[in-house]
Every structure is written in structure tokens, then in C-alpha cells.
Design a protein that fits this description.
Shape: globular
Largest sheet: 6 strands, mixed
Structural class: alpha/beta
Number of helices: 4
Helix content: 10-25%
Strand content: 25-35%
Oligomer: single chain
Radius of gyration: 14 Å
Number of strands: 6
Amino acid sequence: MIKSVSMKMGLHQGDRAILINAPADAVQAIDPSGLQLETELIGDFDYIHLFVVSQLELHKQLPAVKNQLKPTGTIWVSWPKGGQKGTDLALPTVIKIAYDYGFVESKCLRVNNIWSALKLTWPKAGKAYNNKYGKLNQ
């Protein structure tokens, strides 16, 4: 059985979610139809998905969504693969920026031919996080 992108992401029916700057082809690939999809970043979310093309965008967006994520929630960050769309992002850079804002990474996947996605969560208390790309500020 082939898993859908939303299944690979661990999304659950009824999750309160928002997709920020999501292009139509990526939304179609994710298929958020079972989610409680919001259009404004108000309240707490189970799932936030940011689509960014530059480091500057990621630095602007992560602090904006940080306070809206439930303690058990996930933020997925997507960026164009292989330098597409003139991006200055790659996996190591996304991880470093995530750590700078207090998130840890746990999974990377392909949304479609253009977009990669990295799952970010809050760090677990008492767990040591050692990543060669970033240092967690705790």
C-alpha cells in the first residue's frame, strides 16, 4: 500500500491546521481534506505548515507561528528542493534555523517534485539533542 503524504506526515482527522504560503500543487499532494483547516493564525494548532523559499522568510515565519503551536503539535517547513525557485535553503540550513528558534527536527519527506518538508517539534524535557547542523538554545 502506498502511503499518502498526509499519512507520512502523521496528520490526524480533525487536527486543527493551517497551511501558510502553500502552493496549490503542494496542497493537492498533502490533501488536507480531513483536517480542520483554518485561514488565520489565531489560537492553538496541531499542525502548522510553512512554505518558504528563503532563509529570511523562515526567520520571519518561525517566530510568528511559534506561540500558536500546541505542546504536542508539529510544524512542517517546506522549501524547494535542489535550488529550485532560487532558494537559499537546504536541509542543514533549515535544521540550524529551527534549532535557533527552539525546535528540533524528527523527519524529512518529499511533498512533491518541488517541495521537501521537515517536521519540527518542541524538544522533550530531559532529552539531549545533538545535531551537527544546529545547537538547541535551552
